[in-house]
Write a structure and sequence with these properties.
Elements lengths: L3 H19 L5 E3 L19 E16 L2 E8 L8 E4 L3 E8 L10 E2 L9 H4 L6 E7 L4 E6 L5 H6 L3 E7 L9 E10 L9 E3 L3 H6 L4 E4 L12 E4 L3 E10 L4 E6 L3 E5 L8 E4 L1 E4 L3 E8 L4 E7 L2 H7 L2 E7 L28 H6 L5 H20 L17 H5 L1 H10 L1 E7 L2 E7 L6 H12 L11 H9 L2
Helix pairs in contact: 7-10, 9-10, 9-11, 10-11
The chain binds copper (II) ion.
């Protein structure tokens, strides 16, 4: 209840506060939050401030990959959550609101906070409520924030993390571009690439077997028109975080060397000339480099199957003048003839002399060709690799049509095909094989792993080759 007296007090207080402001009381401002890959602008003021951060948690269905959806739990409606930038010494007033449509309570643990749970203890918020707490940003550096509501792993696995940068009083050197990148994994019930809305799979998360490892919350978030950009001669700084929940990132940019690394997101430029920097789960790194030549630089987790089979692939497009001194491009493309070129061609003569091959010899040679050429993709027992390389064992596609199979091996194959009820949409390269090798390897394949038992002749291969 407000009495006359308290009103008077309030008026007096605001008068004094007003004077204090003019005499150097900390200014108040609202933090500008940005969505990846955008970084909030450099803080130019040279004094401490009171910074208000307003952040909402919500749960929403979004795209994880083309045709694949997931119910993300988010800060600010995105994965990663928005990036926050404050200055060392600032007092941060944090308002965390949980959208009424949420099913879960959420909170926030900012690794930049000195205090219980990094703020988690004071920010548990049920749907339709807001929590307020304050902290002083006494340590500069780049920090992960994440939800820490039980089960913590699940809240993180569903997308609840982002970066807060506490800009040092002496800010890092000026650069031309700054970008915000966060790596993380997703544990979907369906295998990588399985279409439709995917559930979270707790067992895969416990086993640390993600189906997706991505930058900025989804596959392709930094590719094509969404690639980050720079011009030749510019300096680039990447603020890189790792939300985990489990994996450590071997962060690397193909085609660049990090001139400077602030290891683990600390504020000392403690490393020069680094190829790959390790980013712990729940950690970060700041990397800087100058781009000297045009082209596409590729951001990867150099645990490389994650990149080519699970999604941790991004791109920095550098535009500008060629710089032949730094990188020449291909200067020559010449024939390479080891041992005087003896192995270069399959001599016609030998092929003729060996026309009457016994079945035994055909199978023996076919096995050799298979192990040397095909096994790398179709695997030792012809079982293939799920959703990447189709099986050759008991393969309906192979057994249904011999001439088609020969053409596949002679000319290569791309586009969608269905093998044993599973769709594949990949590329089999055109292989450099003699007609004899193709005949033998296919005969070998047809006579193993419960296949149709056909024999493929050199003449049949010749005909298939002429067909294109
Ligand atoms: Cu949460």
């Amino acid at each position: 209840m407000r009495t006359k007296n308290t009103v008077l007090h309030a008026a007096l207080f605001s008068l004094i506060a007003g004077i204090a402001m003019q005499c150097g009381e900390a200014p108040v401002e609202t933090a500008k939050l940005t969505y990846a890959p955008e970084v909030p602008p450099v803080i130019e003021r040279s004094r401490e401030a009171r910074v208000i951060v307003n952040l909402e948690t919500n749960e929403q269905v979004g795209r994880l990959a083309d045709g694949v959806e997931y119910t993300f739990w988010t800060f600010g409606g995105s994965v990663p959550g928005p990036m926050i930038r404050v200055r060392e010494g600032d007092t941060v007033e944090f308002n965390l609101s949980n959208h009424p449509s949420s099913k879960m309570p959420h909170n926030i643990d900012l690794h930049a906070v000195t205090g219980p749970g990094g703020g988690a203890a004071s920010s548990l918020t049920v749907p339709g409520r807001s929590s307020k707490f304050e902290f002083k940003a006494i340590n500069a550096g780049l920090y992960i924030y994440h939800c820490a509501t039980a089960p913590v792993g699940m809240h993180i696995a569903n997308g609840m993390y982002g970066l807060i940068y506490v800009q040092p009083k002496d800010e890092l050197p000026k650069v031309d571009r700054e970008y915000y990148v966060v790596q993380s994994e997703f544990y979907t019930s369906g295998k990588h690439g399985k279409n439709g809305l995917q559930d979270f799979d707790m067992q895969k998360a416990i086993d640390e077997h993600p189906e997706y490892v991505v930058f900025n919350g989804s596959m392709g978030s930094l590719l094509e028109e969404k690639a980050i950009k720079a011009k030749v001669g510019e300096t680039v700084r990447l603020f890189v975080g790792n939300g985990g929940p489990n994996l450590v990132s071997s962060f690397h940019v193909i085609g660049e060397i990090f001139d400077t690394v602030y290891t683990e997101g600390g504020t000392i430029a403690n490393q020069k000339n680094v190829q790959t920097t390790l980013i712990p789960a729940g950690g970060s790194a700041i990397v800087e480099f100058k781009v000297e030549a045009p082209g596409s630089l590729i951001l990867v987790d150099h645990s490389i199957f994650r990149t080519f089979n699970k999604g941790s692939l991004g791109m920095l497009k550098v535009e500008g003048e060629e710089n032949k001194e730094i990188y020449s491009g291909k200067i020559e493309d010449t024939v390479y003839l080891p041992e005087g070129g003896a192995i270069q061609k399959m001599p016609e003569k030998t092929a003729k002399a060996e026309e009457n091959w016994t079945k035994e010899k055909i199978l023996e040679n076919g096995a050799q060709v298979y192990n040397k050429v095909c096994k790398a993709c179709h695997m030792g027992e012809g079982q293939g690799v799920p959703s990447v390389f189709p099986p050759l064992a008991k393969a309906d596609y192979l057994n249904a049509n011999k001439n088609r199979a020969i053409e596949v091996v002679v000319h290569g194959l791309q586009g969608e095909i269905t093998v044993n009820g599973t769709k594949y949409n990949s590329v089999m390269p055109e292989l450099e094989l003699s007609d004899r090798d193709v005949a033998n390897v296919l005969t070998y394949v047809y006579n193993n792993w419960s296949n149709a038992g056909h024999t493929v002749t050199v003449d049949e291969v010749k005909r298939a080759r002429a067909k294109k």
